[in-house]
Amino acid sequence: MYLTWFDNNSWLLELGEQRILIDPWLVDVLTFGNLDWFFKGSRSQQRPIPENIDLILLSQGLEDHAHLPTLKQLNRNIPVVASPNAAKVVQGLGFTSVTSLAHGESFTFNNLIEIKAFPGSLVGPTLVENSYFIKELATGLTLYYEPHGNHSPQLKQVAPVDVVITPIIDAVLPLVGSFIKGGNSALEVAQWLQPQVMLSTANAKETTYEGLLSKIITFKGSIADFRLLLEKHNLPTQVLDPHPGDRVELQLKKRVLTI
C-alpha cells in the first residue's frame, strides 16, 4: 500500500494495483459559494493531476472535497464513487460512471477493491456525509478514511483496520467548538480499530487561508501530542507525518487471526 498526501484532504491511495484519488483539491483556490471575503484557501504550489487514475473517491459534496476546478481537469470517463451529495456534483460535470453510496452500502471495483460507506461528517443541521472502509480483496489490507473526525460506532464491525486517515488536530470555532475533531476523537477510533498506522488529514502545510472564517478558527493539538496520547493508552499505532507530495510505502504486518 502506498499513500501520497497532497495537503488538506487530498490523497492518492495505491492499493491492489489501483490508483484511487480521494477528495482532490490540486489546483486553483478554494472558496465556498465564491465568497472570497468569507473564506479563501490558496495553495503555495499547484499540484499536477496524477496520471493513470483508476477511481475517484469523494466523501462530501462541499467544495473542499468535491473541488470543481480540480474535477474539471480530470477525465470524465474515470469512474467515481461518491456520497449522494457529491455524486450530484460530478454528474453535473458530465462524469459518465458515478456510483452513489448511501451509508451501509458497498461497491466492488474491478473485483479487486471493496469500498463500504459509513456515516461521516455532519454538514449542516441534518446532512451526514460519508466515511469509507476500503479493503484490498486479495491481501485483506484495509483502510478507513474520515476527514472531519466524526466516527460512527458502526465501524466496530470492521475492526481491526490496518490504516486510518483522520484528523489528529482539532479546528475550533467560537461557540461551536471543534468542527474538525482530532485528539480524543482520533484516540477513540484508534481504540475501536486498532490500526497499525494513522495519518493526519484536514491540516495544511502548503496552504494559506484568508477571509472572515479563517480569522476566528483556532487549532488545538499536534502530531507529537497525539503520539503521547496513544502511548498513554498503551496503543502501539505508528503515526506518520508525511510531507505533501511524498509517496509513502506503508510497512504493514499481516494480521494473525485468533479464534
Automatic annotation (TrEMBL):
Gene3D superfamilies according to UniProt: Ribonuclease Z/Hydroxyacylglutathione hydrolase-like
Top-level taxon of origin: Bacteria
SUPFAM superfamilies listed in its UniProt record: Metallo-hydrolase/oxidoreductase
Name listed for the protein in its UniProt record: MBL fold metallo-hydrolase
Organism in which the protein naturally occurs: Anabaena azotica FACHB-119
Organismal lineage: Bacteria, Bacillati, Cyanobacteriota, Cyanophyceae, Nostocales
